[in-house]
Write a structure and sequence with these properties.
mainly beta; Nuclear Transport Factor 2, Chain: A; 5-stranded mixed beta sheet; 141 residues; single chain
Length: 141
Amino acid sequence: MMNPNSLCIICTTGCRSWFLPRDGEENKRVSENLAAMVNVPKTKKTYCKSKECRKHTVHKVTQYKKGKDSLSAQGKRRYDRKQSGYGGQTKPVFHKKAKTTKKIVLRLQCQGCKHVSQHAIKRCKHFEIGGDKKGKGTSLF
C-alpha cells in the first residue's frame, strides 16, 4: 500500500516513481552510507535460539567464509563434461561486476551449547575483529 506522504516527484500522483524522495528529503546513497572501517569485538552477548539455551549468552564472533566448492556437485560435473574436448569456452563468463564491497556476515557461536548462527551487517571497505578500541579524541594510527 502506498504512503500518502510519498507522492511522485514528477507528476505529483501515485504512479510507479512514488518511492523516489521528495524535494525536502535527503537522497541517501549506499556509497555515502559505507563505513570507512568496522571494528567488531571478539565476543558478543546475544540471544541463542537453540533448544538447549533459549536465552542471552556470550557468543564467539568470527567472519563467515565460503566453503570450498565440491568437485562432485552435479553442476560442476556437467560443466566439466561440457568443457572437455575441442570447442573452447562453452558457458558465458561474467565480467560486469557492479559492487565494490560485500556485505559482512558474522558467524556467532554460542559458548554454552556451541550452536552457530549468522548475522549480516552493512557493507564496508575494511573490517576487523577484536581490534584496538578508538578512544575519544584519539586516532588509531
